[in-house]
């Protein structure tokens, strides 16, 4: 196991039922202000509305892709934030925003290929998922993981080759979203 | 639409200033020794003051774009960020223009300052286009046509301002403006193709068509009318400036609309 912790998540799209419990749980438990969302659910098939079926009858399928910040190893939001408000914790790999420094230029949301940062339109600063860093520091799981009724989210340490997270990523051949951007996301889709 | 307005204000007014300073770097803005006194509005320093005012309006636009405008100095903290670099180049251009005003009141603008201003202005235009080009979350901006949308547009607007305010080089700058208006036609078509290849669902053609007419066809018509003697050069230069600025702004409204759709 390496010295540096790298938290990550696997999301099993074959288990997700699109109930949005993760979205609501995150919003309520973290008291995310205004219209900002730290996680949300999209259609697994790009270009379709969230509950729209893909395919043609009788071979139709409804599948979901829960999205959140990927806590990339090389995050474009951190590289491009003009203020340094977007930062990566060197001890956990978690990417967070320092709201006392942010000027809310919105550039992080433009450069993030995953559209993760969103505007907190109440306090006029950017907002984003921080993997519920305070809970994780206490040994707890993020709210979205704990509340998922389908057990579609697995949280753990990517730096630990023996972790349950790495085991399921290997077993189910998890893939990172849009690897072509070279950001090395810490979220894998199964 | 509302969130676009500060970006339009910055890229259009800041772009006019940068384009005009770049174009003026190719001519002499000094006043010869013993030259007869001319009205203030015809002096090179007046031209520089207008550029400075346009840049100031553009920078005020950026403040309105921020959710926390009072923290704007924080935005200069990361040299790797294109937004910080836009700030560095804009402030540098402002400082060069302030120096040009201070030194140019009596004898015109020293040559080294016009050249330095041109270099800084070009840097500002390129960094501005990079800021959009590198927005990985907005694929429709990640193509080569993004650069001329800003660089050609800025120079076209700047040349038109030079044609109006640098009277002894008006013919030269009107000719340059007409040439750039023709290039603007190609730029609009190139960006249309970029949009169509990435975001087929967005109907960008109205923006392209209107900007081609306003920033391309009509300025060329005004230039031709001036050549044929149907329009006085001063009237033609006013017409070209208004049309190029309006047409460039229309293309950029479309640029931001398709990116933020």
Structural class of chain A: alpha+beta
Number of strands of chain B: 0
**Distance N to C terminus of chain B:** 10 Å
- Looking at how many chains there are and whether they match, the oligomeric state comes to heterodimer
Number of helices, counting only DSSP H or I runs of 4 residues or more of chain A: 6
User: How would you describe the shape of chain A?
Assistant: globular
Order of helices and strands of chain B: HHHHHHHH
Give the overall shape of chain B: globular
Mean of pLDDT of chain A: 92
Kindly state the percentage of residues in helix of chain B: over 70%
Strand content of chain B: under 5%
- Could you please say which CATH topology of chain B applies here? Formate dehydrogenase/DMSO reductase fold
| Overall mean pLDDT of chain B | 91
Given the helix and strand composition of chain B, which structural class is it? mainly alpha
Instruction: Return the domain count of chain A.
Output: 1
Radius of gyration of chain B: 18 Å
Q: What is the C-level CATH assignment of chain B?
A: Mainly Alpha
Q: Unreliable runs of chain B, pLDDT <50, ≥5 residues?
A: none
Question: From the alpha-carbon coordinates, what is the Rg of chain A to the nearest angstrom?
Answer: 16 Å
CATH topology name of chain A, in short, is Alpha-Beta Plaits
Keywords, separated by commas or semicolons:
heterodimer; A: 190 residues; alpha+beta; Alpha-Beta Plaits; 3-stranded mixed beta sheet; two-stranded antiparallel ribbon; 6 helices; 11 strands; B: 261 residues; mainly alpha; Formate dehydrogenase/DMSO reductase fold; 8 helices
């Amino acid at each position: 196991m390496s010295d540096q912790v790298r938290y990550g998540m696997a999301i099993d799209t074959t288990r997700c039922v699109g109930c949005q419990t993760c979205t609501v749980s995150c919003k309520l438990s973290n008291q995310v202000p205004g219209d900002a969302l730290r996680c949300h659910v999209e259609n697994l098939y790009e270009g379709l509305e969230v509950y729209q079926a893909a395919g043609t009858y009788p071979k139709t399928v409804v599948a979901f892709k829960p999205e959140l910040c990927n806590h990339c190893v090389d995050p474009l939001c951190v590289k491009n934030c003009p203020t340094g408000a977007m930062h990566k914790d060197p001890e956990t790999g978690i990417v967070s925003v320092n709201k006392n420094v942010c000027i809310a230029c919105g550039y992080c949301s433009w450069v993030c290929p995953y559209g993760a940062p969103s505007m907190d339109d109440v306090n006029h600063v950017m907002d984003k998922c921080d993997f519920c860093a305070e809970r994780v520091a206490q040994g707890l799981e993020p709210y979205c993981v704990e509340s998922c009724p389908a057990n579609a989210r697995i949280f753990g340490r990517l730096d630990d080759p023996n972790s349950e997270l790495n085991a399921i990523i290997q077993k189910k051949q998890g893939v990172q979203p849009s690897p072509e951007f070279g950001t090395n996301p810490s979220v894998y889709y199964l | 639409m509302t969130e676009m307005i500060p970006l339009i204000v910055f890229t259009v007014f800041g772009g006019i200033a940068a384009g005009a300073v770049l174009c003026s770097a190719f001519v002499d803005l000094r006043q010869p020794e013993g030259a007869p006194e001319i009205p203030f509005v015809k002096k090179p320093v007046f031209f520089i003051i207008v550029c400075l005012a346009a840049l100031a309006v553009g920078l005020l636009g950026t403040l309105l774009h921020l959710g926390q405008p009072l923290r704007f100095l924080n935005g200069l903290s990361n040299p790797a960020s294109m937004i910080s670099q836009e700030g560095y180049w804009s402030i540098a251009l402002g400082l060069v223009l302030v120096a040009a005003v201070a030194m140019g009141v009596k004898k015109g603008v020293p040559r080294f300052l016009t050249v330095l201003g041109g270099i800084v202005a070009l840097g500002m235009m390129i960094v501005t286009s990079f800021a959009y080009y590198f927005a990985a979350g907005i694929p429709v901006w990640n193509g080569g046509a993004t650069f001329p949308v800003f660089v050609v547009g800025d120079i076209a607007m700047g040349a038109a301002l030079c044609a109006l305010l640098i009277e002894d080089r008006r013919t030269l700058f009107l000719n340059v403006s007409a040439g750039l208006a023709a290039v603007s036609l190609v730029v609009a078509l190139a960006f249309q193709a970029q949009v169509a290849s990435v975001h087929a669902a967005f109907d960008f053609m109205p923006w392209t068509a209107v900007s081609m007419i306003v920033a391309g066809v009509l300025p060329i018509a005004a230039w031709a009318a001036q050549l044929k003697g149907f329009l006085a050069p001063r009237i033609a230069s006013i017409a070209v400036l208004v049309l190029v600025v309006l047409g460039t702004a229309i293309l950029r409204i479309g640029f931001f609309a398709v990116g933020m759709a």
